Amino acid sequence: PPVGSMLNLDDFERMAKEILSEQGWAYYSSAGDDCVTLRANRTSFSRVWFRPRVLRGASGKPGIDTSTTLLENSARIESSLPIYISPAAMAKLGHPEGEVNLTKAARSAGIVQGVSANASVSLDEIVAARETREQPLIYQLYINKDRRASEEILRKVEQDGFKAVMLTVDAPVMGKRELDMRAKGEIVSSPASPDSGGSASTSTSGRGVAGAISGYIDPTISWADIDWYRRHCKLPLILKGVQSVEDVQLAVQHGIEAVILSNHGGRSLDYSPPPLDVLISLRQHAPHLFNQIEVWLDGGVRRGTDVIKALCLGASAVGLGRPFLYAQSGFGQPGAERAVEIMRDEIERCMRFLGVGSLSELGPELVEVLPRVFT
Ligand code: FNR
Question: Which protein residue's CA is at the shortest distance from atom 2 of ligand 1?
Fold first, then answer.
């Protein structure tokens, strides 16, 4: 079907399920244990309802301004939308150009791409696909048991003009993703992954794709490693995978530039809380923290309304993982571009319905939060 017939992000998921290999679908869609957190990431958004305002004129304004500045106190990244591409590994399982599709689509859409440590193309290929050095890329780091390998990568991403680093902290071990472990498929390759010594091709045999590319990750990292990071890299640091109010507080104390409330798309610990629930707790119990650190969020975001709900509650940016992998599967760059177009339309529509003309007008008064749901 033509890419224009995709009307929402779930259309891409259905399409991807049809065309992906057994291994590709299993790796992309799988999540920890019984996938309770995976489902809750999605259903948590039904806790938040809008309180639209009418007769505010915004619905008739020709231009709704969806642009924003990320890492406002450090990198100052301009983005045309408050969404970004979450770093997710192995885009080549869906399309031969892999993550390069996302780099080009991010450029044409004016949004940020998070580049996975386990991307299926090399960093050099990503960098070569940028149109200019100014195009905002953020590198996602897994700290290597061999610290020198990580130090080398940090030097490289700094030289290559990356704008910041996301350090993923919610995957000290791999979640037990049984669909991935059962899927048949032999060889995976992650030239970006330090595991592979630069050209990793490795058999999955029962470990799943995730198990095959993650052996180098240090499960013992701690807050002390933040000092190690600062010694080796000048780029702003974003902690990805924060799941409690207490850890946001600690991130502030450690001078971290931003946190991403995330549970790795449900792929790590099952029964870890949906990021939207953590955001709501933060707003209820420690709203002052929003002035001290930028709060981003990912997990289960599939609609423009999801994005606007998170922004109303204090998030600065919202990431999408699987939707971009699915959208580039089969369609390549135009698929990823279409996914952004769909989100742009839905975000603008939602803003017009709420009666706001720019993101800075969003706030908690525009939503009502219901008690936690469990279905
Ligand atoms: C991921 N994610 C991820 N995160 C990360 O820090 N490094 C990585 O290499 C990967 N790889 C990865 C692969 C796949 C197939 C998926 C689906 C996810 C997690 C990702 O950045 C993000 O947190 C979630 O995908 C967000 O949830 P949604 O948008 O997929 O619901």
Answer: 88
How remote is the CA of residue 357 from the centroid of ligand 1, in Å? 31
| ipTM (interface pTM) | 0.99
88 Cβ closer than 6 Å to some ligand 1 atom = yes
Q: Which of 302, 282, 264, 307 shows the shortest CA–CA distance to 140?
A: 264
**Beta carbons of 112 and 77 less than 8 angstroms apart:** yes
Residues ≥6 apart with Cβ < 8 Å to 50:
305, 309, 353, 354, 366, 367, 368
Q: What is the DSSP string of 240-269?
A: EEE-SHHHHHHHHHTT-SEEEE--GGGTSS
Other CB atoms within a 10 A radius of the CB of residue 123 amount to 20
Angle at 297 between CA 294 and CA 301, to 5 degrees: 150
Q: Does the reported pTM lie above 0.90?
A: yes
- Residue-wise pLDDT tens digits, 270-328: 999 999 999 999 999 999 999 999 999 999 999 999 999 999 999 999 999 999 999 99
- Please report the atom of ligand 1 found closest to the CA of residue 30: 17
Cite the active site residues: 142, 170, 264
Residues 56-82: tens digit of each pLDDT: 875 566 789 999 999 999 999 999 999
Mean pLDDT of all residues in the chain?
94
